[in-house]
């Protein structure tokens, strides 16, 4: 499809999601007001899809930015596509709506456009989002994810959210929901790490076959937050092949990395709190990668995950033991 700045993908439930989204995750040491200022800049630049989450701890700021841009007439509420996420300590059915309503209150919004299960791994329900035992190990919990999903369906029926989906699910976990008895709404998307070093071709193919949109995060590598990221991992934007293509097209490596995913049908979330970069990252609609460039970038795949969740690999629902 021809991509332009207002390009959207139609979700399986009929709602539309802008193909380029603004990510708001920041390392803990990053001041909260940056998310607010960054979101305002993003909306001014043209982003209409804002991705945030309960666990980011900045929904108040992001909500304030959206509110300010609605108040000053830049956008109407219906122009903004807001994604929120159900955190892992809220998987028990009676807590799903609690998490959603807390986020809505922080955001000062009446509804979310999309609410997704942040990841399939569940932690002990309670006020502590990362509950630890006396040995400093996360306390796991095991609700049937299909019961969690039913609770999300009820939130959609209640009008608190337009669309529902998942994040960080492998194909077997997606199938568990798709094949569940009495399924009312299937997940519209699966949001996963996706970039030139982890191009997710198998998962993308699977999702396309089920009419599920693949949404990519960490598309430019990552924020290199010490808590999650191996500091020795290669810096994606310094990749030589990527840089050769960028130079040839007179584009930034980031623009090429994003364009590569967009042309494969991935919805792209780009995160930056630097105004010039927010602007640059939006300029991915006025050029195209040819088949040869796409093939060169395909060749960079090395199944590299920047977001390191191996400390949770003993969780019964750890998603990444599967190939896709």
UniProtKB/TrEMBL annotation:
Can you provide one Gene Ontology molecular function annotated for this UniProt record?
steroid dehydrogenase activity
- What are the NADP-dependent oxidoreductase domain coordinates in residue numbering? 20-301
* Keywords of the record: Eye lens protein
Q: Where does substrate bind?
A: 118
The record's active-site residues are 56 (proton donor)
Q: Which Pfam families match?
A: Aldo_ket_red
- GO cellular-component terms in the record? cytosol
- State whether keyword Signal applies: no
SUPFAM superfamilies the record matches: NAD(P)-linked oxidoreductase
Q: Which GO terms describe its biological process?
A: steroid metabolic process
The parts of the chain that form a coiled coil are: none
Q: Which InterPro entries match?
A: AKR (IPR020471), AKR1C (IPR044482), Aldo/ket_reductase_CS (IPR018170), NAD(P)_OxRdtase_dom_sf (IPR036812), NADP_OxRdtase_dom (IPR023210)
Q: Where are the transmembrane segments?
A: none
Q: Where is this site: Lowers pKa of active site Tyr?
A: 85
Which family, according to UniProt? Belongs to the aldo/keto reductase family.
What protein is this chain from?
A: Rho crystallin
Q: Which organism is it from?
A: Xenopus tropicalis
The encoding gene: LOC734139
């Amino acid at each position: 499809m021809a991509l332009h700045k207002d390009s959207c993908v139609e979700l399986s439930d009929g709602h539309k999601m802008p193909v380029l989204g603004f990510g708001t995750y920041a390392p803990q040491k990053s001041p909260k007001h940056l998310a607010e200022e960054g979101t305002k800049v993003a909306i001014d630049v043209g982003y209409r899809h804002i991705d945030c989450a309960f666990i980011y701890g900045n929904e108040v700021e992001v909500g304030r930015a959206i509110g300010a841009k609605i108040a000053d007439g830049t956008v109407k509420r219906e122009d903004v596509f807001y994604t929120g996420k159900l955190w892992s300590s809220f998987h028990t059915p009676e807590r799903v709506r609690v998490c959603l309503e807390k986020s809505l209150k922080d955001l000062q919004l009446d509804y979310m456009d999309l609410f997704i299960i942040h990841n399939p791994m569940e932690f002990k329900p309670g006020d502590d989002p990362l509950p630890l035992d006396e040995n400093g190990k996360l306390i796991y919990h095991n609700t049937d994810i299909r019961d969690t999903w039913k609770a999300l369906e009820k939130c959609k029926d209640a009008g608190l959210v337009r669309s529902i989906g998942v994040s960080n699910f492998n194909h077997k976990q997606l199938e568990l929901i798709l094949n569940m008895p009495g399924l009312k709404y299937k997940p519209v998307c699966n949001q996963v790490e996706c970039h030139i070093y982890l191009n997710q071709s198998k998962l993308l193919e699977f999702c396309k076959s089920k009419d599920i949109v693949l949404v990519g995060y960490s598309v430019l590598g990552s924020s290199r937050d010490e808590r999650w990221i191996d500091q020795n991992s290669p810096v994606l934007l310094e990749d030589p092949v990527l840089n050769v293509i960028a130079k040839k097209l007179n584009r930034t490596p980031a623009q090429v990395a994003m364009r590569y995913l967009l042309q494969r049908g991935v919805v792209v979330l780009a995160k930056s709190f630097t105004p010039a970069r927010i602007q640059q990252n939006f300029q991915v609609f006025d050029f195209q990668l040819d088949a040869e460039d796409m093939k060169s970038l395909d060749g960079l795949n090395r199944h590299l995950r920047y977001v390191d969740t191996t400390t949770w690999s003993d969780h019964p629902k750890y998603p990444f033991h599967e190939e896709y």
